[in-house]
C-alpha cells in the first residue's frame, strides 16, 4: 500500500463529514469570529465517529480495522 492510497483513504473521512453535515461546507455561514467554526467541526466529527462505531465506515473497511463499540468510544479513559 503506497502513501497516496493511505492519504486518499483518510480524506474520505473529511468528505463524509461534509456530506452528512453540509452546513460545515457552507462558506458564507462559516466565517471565523461569526460562529464557532472549530467547535462545530469538532462536534460533527464526534457525531460522525459515533456513527462509524454503529455502522462500518469506508475508511475502517479499507484498513480492515473494525471500530470499537459506541459505548467504548464514548467512555472516559
How would you briefly describe this protein structure?
By secondary structure, the chain is mainly α.
Count of structural domains: 1
Topology as H/E string? HHHH
Largest beta-sheet characterization: none
Poorly predicted parts = none
Q: What is the total tally of β strands?
A: 0
Report the radius of gyration as a whole number of Å. 14 Å
Shape: globular
Distance between the termini: 32 Å
Q: How many DSSP H or I helices?
A: 4
Tell me the quaternary state: single chain
What is the beta-strand fraction? under 5%
Helical coverage, percent range:
55-70%
Helix/strand-derived category reads mainly alpha
What is the residue-averaged pLDDT?
81
Structural notes for this entry:
With 77 residues, this protein is mostly helical. The chain has one domain (3-74). 60% of the residues lie in helices and 0% in strands. The protein has helices at 3-20, 37-54, 58-62, 70-74. The longest helix has 18 residues, at 3-20. The N and C termini lie far apart (32 Å). The mean pLDDT is 81.
Give structural attributes.
77 residues; mainly alpha; 60% helix; globular
Please describe the topology of this protein.
Elements: H1 3-20, H2 37-54, H3 58-62, H4 70-74
Amino acid at each position: 500500500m503506497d502513501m497516496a492510497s493511505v492519504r486518499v483513504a483518510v480524506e474520505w473521512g473529511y468528505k463524509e463529514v461534509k456530506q452528512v453535515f453540509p452546513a460545515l461546507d457552507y462558506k458564507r455561514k462559516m466565517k471565523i469570529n461569526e460562529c464557532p467554526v472549530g467547535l462545530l467541526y469538532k462536534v460533527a466529527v464526534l457525531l460522525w465517529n459515533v456513527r462509524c462505531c454503529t455502522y462500518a465506515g469506508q475508511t475502517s473497511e479499507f484498513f480492515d480495522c473494525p471500530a470499537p463499540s459506541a459505548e467504548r468510544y464514548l467512555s472516559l479513559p
